[in-house]
Amino acid sequence: MLPTVAIVGRPNVGKSTLFNRLVGKKLALVDDQPGVTRDRREGEAHLLGLDFTIIDTAGYEDEDPQSLPGRMRIQTEAAVDNCDVALFMIDARAGITPLDEEIARWLRANDAPVVLVANKAEGKAADPGVMEAFGLGLGEPIPFSAEHGQGLADLFQALLPHL
Ligand code: GDP
Ligand code: MG
Questions:
Q1: What family does this belong to (predicted)?
Q2: Is the ipTM of this complex over 0.95?
Q3: Whether this model's pTM surpasses 0.80
Q4: Domains along the sequence of the chain with CATH
Q5: Which of 13, 17, 76 to mutate to test the pocket of ligand 1 (most atoms within 8 A of CB)?
C-alpha cells in the first residue's frame, strides 16, 4: 500500500491545483470561486520518483460562513487522521488569515507530521506571505507555485523523510 499525503488548507489556496498536478489528471475541479471541490478526492501522485496516495479535501461552498470552521475541522481531521503526512497549504499572496491560524492549531494538536507549503509564491508579491507563514509554528514554509510547478524539488525533499 502506498503512503498517504493529505492536502489541507482553507478554500481557494490551490489545493486542487496541486492535486491535479501531482496526479497528472484533472480529477479535481479548480475554480476561481473559493471551495469548488465538492467532496474529498483520492488519487495516485507521482513526484520526482516518489509515489503516494494523495487526498484533496473538500470545499464548503454551500455552508453558512459561520459554520465554515466547524465543517472544515471535521473534514481536515478526518483526512489527517489517516495520513502519513499532512501537506498544509496557505496562499502566500493573501497572507495568513485567522482560519489559517485555526487550522495550524488543529494540526499542532495532531500527531501527523506537517509539511507547510506557501502556494502562489511565483513573483515578489508573495514574499511577505512566505515570511508570515513562519509564524504558524509549523516549521519552514516551502515557497511553491502549484500553477507554475515551482518548488517541486523542495516539496520532494520535505515529504521524503515521512513517506
Ligand atoms: P482550492 O480551493 O484550495 O482547491 O484551490 P484551487 O486549486 O481550486 O485554486 C483556487 C484558485 O487559485 C484558482 O483560480 C487557481 O487557478 C489559483 N491558483 C492555484 N495555484 C496557484 C498558484 O500557484 N499561483 C497563482 N497565482 N494562483 C494559483
Ligand atoms: Mg479544491
A1: Belongs to the TRAFAC class TrmE-Era-EngA-EngB-Septin-like GTPase superfamily. EngA (Der) GTPase family.
A2: yes
A3: yes
A4: 4-68+87-162 (3.40.50.300)
A5: 17
